[in-house]
User: Which sequence fits this backbone?
Protein backbone atom coordinates (compact mmCIF):
# COMPACT_ATOMS: atom_id res chain seq x y z
CA UNK A 1 0.00 0.00 0.00
CA UNK A 2 1.30 3.46 -0.90
CA UNK A 3 0.78 6.63 1.01
CA UNK A 4 -1.79 8.82 -0.80
CA UNK A 5 -0.22 11.96 0.66
CA UNK A 6 3.21 11.38 -0.89
CA UNK A 7 4.07 14.23 -3.25
CA UNK A 8 4.76 13.40 -6.88
CA UNK A 9 8.36 12.99 -8.03
CA UNK A 10 9.84 16.42 -8.46
CA UNK A 11 13.14 18.09 -9.30
CA UNK A 12 14.60 17.67 -5.85
CA UNK A 13 18.35 17.16 -5.43
CA UNK A 14 17.79 13.48 -4.74
CA UNK A 15 15.82 12.88 -7.96
CA UNK A 16 18.25 14.62 -10.30
CA UNK A 17 20.91 12.43 -11.85
CA UNK A 18 24.48 13.54 -11.02
CA UNK A 19 25.31 14.15 -14.70
CA UNK A 20 22.44 16.65 -14.87
CA UNK A 21 23.62 18.63 -11.85
CA UNK A 22 25.77 21.10 -13.79
CA UNK A 23 25.83 24.83 -13.85
CA UNK A 24 28.01 27.53 -15.30
CA UNK A 25 30.45 29.35 -13.06
CA UNK A 26 29.67 32.91 -12.05
CA UNK A 27 31.32 35.97 -13.54
CA UNK A 28 34.73 36.73 -12.07
CA UNK A 29 35.30 40.14 -10.52
CA UNK A 30 37.65 41.08 -13.35
CA UNK A 31 34.85 40.52 -15.88
CA UNK A 32 32.43 42.58 -13.79
CA UNK A 33 35.05 45.33 -13.57
CA UNK A 34 35.54 45.22 -17.34
CA UNK A 35 31.79 45.47 -17.96
CA UNK A 36 31.38 48.26 -15.39
CA UNK A 37 34.16 50.29 -17.01
CA UNK A 38 33.40 49.46 -20.62
CA UNK A 39 29.66 50.26 -20.43
CA UNK A 40 30.10 53.97 -19.55
CA UNK A 41 32.85 54.26 -22.18
CA UNK A 42 30.49 52.85 -24.81
CA UNK A 43 27.57 55.03 -23.73
CA UNK A 44 29.76 58.14 -23.66
CA UNK A 45 31.14 57.31 -27.11
CA UNK A 46 27.60 56.82 -28.48
CA UNK A 47 26.50 60.21 -27.11
CA UNK A 48 29.56 61.96 -28.52
CA UNK A 49 29.08 60.19 -31.85
CA UNK A 50 25.46 61.33 -32.12
CA UNK A 51 26.38 64.91 -31.25
CA UNK A 52 29.27 64.96 -33.72
CA UNK A 53 27.13 63.38 -36.42
CA UNK A 54 24.55 66.14 -36.04
CA UNK A 55 27.30 68.74 -36.41
CA UNK A 56 28.83 66.91 -39.39
CA UNK A 57 25.47 66.60 -41.15
CA UNK A 58 24.83 70.32 -40.76
CA UNK A 59 28.29 71.04 -42.13
CA UNK A 60 27.96 68.58 -45.03
CA UNK A 61 24.58 69.98 -46.04
CA UNK A 62 26.03 73.46 -46.20
CA UNK A 63 29.27 72.57 -47.97
CA UNK A 64 28.01 69.60 -50.00
CA UNK A 65 30.85 67.21 -49.10
CA UNK A 66 28.84 64.03 -48.62
CA UNK A 67 31.71 61.61 -49.34
CA UNK A 68 33.64 62.89 -46.32
CA UNK A 69 30.49 62.64 -44.22
CA UNK A 70 29.92 59.03 -45.32
CA UNK A 71 33.51 58.08 -44.49
CA UNK A 72 33.34 59.85 -41.13
CA UNK A 73 30.01 58.27 -40.23
CA UNK A 74 31.05 54.84 -41.45
CA UNK A 75 34.21 54.25 -39.48
CA UNK A 76 32.96 55.91 -36.30
CA UNK A 77 29.72 53.93 -36.38
CA UNK A 78 31.73 50.76 -37.00
CA UNK A 79 33.78 51.54 -33.90
CA UNK A 80 30.58 51.94 -31.87
CA UNK A 81 29.30 48.59 -33.18
CA UNK A 82 32.65 47.03 -32.20
CA UNK A 83 32.41 48.44 -28.66
CA UNK A 84 28.87 47.10 -28.21
CA UNK A 85 29.79 43.74 -29.76
CA UNK A 86 32.70 43.40 -27.35
CA UNK A 87 30.41 43.94 -24.36
CA UNK A 88 27.91 41.41 -25.68
CA UNK A 89 30.63 38.84 -26.38
CA UNK A 90 32.03 39.20 -22.87
CA UNK A 91 28.55 39.00 -21.34
CA UNK A 92 27.76 35.84 -23.31
CA UNK A 93 31.04 34.13 -22.34
CA UNK A 94 32.45 33.86 -25.86
CA UNK A 95 36.16 33.25 -26.49
CA UNK A 96 36.19 36.20 -28.88
CA UNK A 97 35.02 38.36 -25.96
CA UNK A 98 37.90 37.07 -23.86
CA UNK A 99 40.51 37.94 -26.46
CA UNK A 100 38.80 41.19 -27.44
CA UNK A 101 38.66 42.22 -23.79
CA UNK A 102 42.36 41.46 -23.40
CA UNK A 103 43.03 43.56 -26.50
CA UNK A 104 40.96 46.42 -25.06
CA UNK A 105 42.78 46.26 -21.72
CA UNK A 106 46.08 46.21 -23.62
CA UNK A 107 45.00 49.28 -25.60
CA UNK A 108 44.16 51.11 -22.37
CA UNK A 109 47.55 50.10 -20.99
CA UNK A 110 49.34 51.36 -24.11
CA UNK A 111 47.41 54.63 -23.99
CA UNK A 112 48.18 55.10 -20.29
CA UNK A 113 51.85 54.39 -20.89
CA UNK A 114 52.38 56.29 -24.16
CA UNK A 115 50.07 59.29 -23.80
CA UNK A 116 51.96 62.55 -23.46
CA UNK A 117 52.15 64.04 -19.98
CA UNK A 118 50.79 67.59 -20.22
CA UNK A 119 50.51 68.22 -16.49
CA UNK A 120 52.53 70.84 -14.65
CA UNK A 121 54.15 69.87 -11.37
CA UNK A 122 55.11 72.07 -8.45
CA UNK A 123 58.23 70.09 -7.59
CA UNK A 124 60.54 67.34 -8.77
CA UNK A 125 59.00 64.99 -6.19
CA UNK A 126 55.55 65.38 -7.76
CA UNK A 127 57.04 64.75 -11.21
CA UNK A 128 58.82 61.61 -9.95
CA UNK A 129 55.61 60.31 -8.39
CA UNK A 130 53.71 60.91 -11.61
CA UNK A 131 56.39 59.16 -13.68
CA UNK A 132 56.33 56.18 -11.29
CA UNK A 133 52.54 56.01 -11.46
CA UNK A 134 52.39 56.32 -15.26
CA UNK A 135 55.22 53.94 -16.07
CA UNK A 136 55.11 51.38 -13.24
CA UNK A 137 52.05 51.42 -10.99
CA UNK A 138 49.19 51.82 -13.50
CA UNK A 139 50.68 49.38 -16.06
CA UNK A 140 51.21 46.84 -13.25
CA UNK A 141 47.57 47.17 -12.18
CA UNK A 142 46.37 46.85 -15.77
CA UNK A 143 48.63 43.82 -16.35
CA UNK A 144 47.21 42.16 -13.23
CA UNK A 145 43.68 42.95 -14.43
CA UNK A 146 44.47 41.52 -17.88
CA UNK A 147 45.80 38.34 -16.29
CA UNK A 148 42.73 37.99 -14.08
CA UNK A 149 40.43 38.74 -17.03
CA UNK A 150 41.93 36.30 -19.49
CA UNK A 151 44.13 33.71 -17.86
CA UNK A 152 43.06 33.06 -14.27
CA UNK A 153 41.31 29.80 -13.39
CA UNK A 154 38.00 31.63 -12.82
CA UNK A 155 38.24 33.44 -16.17
CA UNK A 156 39.09 30.26 -18.06
CA UNK A 157 36.11 28.52 -16.46
CA UNK A 158 33.85 31.51 -17.22
CA UNK A 159 34.84 31.69 -20.88
CA UNK A 160 34.81 27.92 -21.42
CA UNK A 161 32.06 26.53 -23.61
CA UNK A 162 31.09 23.68 -21.29
CA UNK A 163 29.25 23.98 -17.98
CA UNK A 164 31.13 22.54 -15.03
CA UNK A 165 29.78 19.89 -12.70
CA UNK A 166 28.71 21.34 -9.40
CA UNK A 167 26.58 20.27 -6.47
CA UNK A 168 22.90 21.09 -6.80
CA UNK A 169 22.21 24.59 -5.54
CA UNK A 170 18.63 25.77 -5.18
CA UNK A 171 19.61 29.42 -4.63
CA UNK A 172 20.44 30.00 -8.30
Assistant:
Amino acid sequence: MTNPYTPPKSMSPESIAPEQQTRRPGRPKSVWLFLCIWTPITVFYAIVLMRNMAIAIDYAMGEGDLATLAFYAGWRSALLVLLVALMVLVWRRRQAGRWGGLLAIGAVMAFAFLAPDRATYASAAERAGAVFARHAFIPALLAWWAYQFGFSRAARAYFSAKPVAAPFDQST
